[in-house]
Amino acid sequence: MNFKIVNAELGIASCSRDQVAEDIRNPSTVIFFYYQKRDWIVFNEERRDYELFLELVQGYMELNDRQRKIFLNQVDIAEVRKMIDTLNRILRIRRKWHQKMKAA
Length: 104
Hints:
By secondary structure, the protein is α+β, with helices and mostly antiparallel strands. Helices cover 46% and strands 16% of the residues. It has three helices and four strands; from the N terminus they run ββββααα. It has helices at 50-61, 65-74, 78-103; strands spanning 4-7, 12-15, 32-35, 40-44. It is globular. 14% of the residues are buried.
C-alpha cells in the first residue's frame, strides 16, 4: 500500500480511494480506517471533506479523556458521532497494543 504520512506523531496517514483496504465494499464512503500492521489511522484523501475530517480527528486525538467526553456530549450530527465512536474504538485498540508492547 502506498500511504502518505500526514502526522507521524499521531500515527495518521492518507491514501487514494483505490488504496483503501480491499475488504471494504464501498471505498468511496470510507472516511478513515485502522491499518494495524503499521498502527496508523489512514484517511481516504479522495473523500469529500477530507481536510475537515482530518482536522477534526487530529484535534480530537490531542484532547485528554475528559475533554473528549465533553466534546462527544456536544456532538449532535449523526455522521460525526459515528466517526468519533469508531475513532474511540481505534484509540482503545492502540492503547492496549502499546501497553502490551511496553510490558513485553
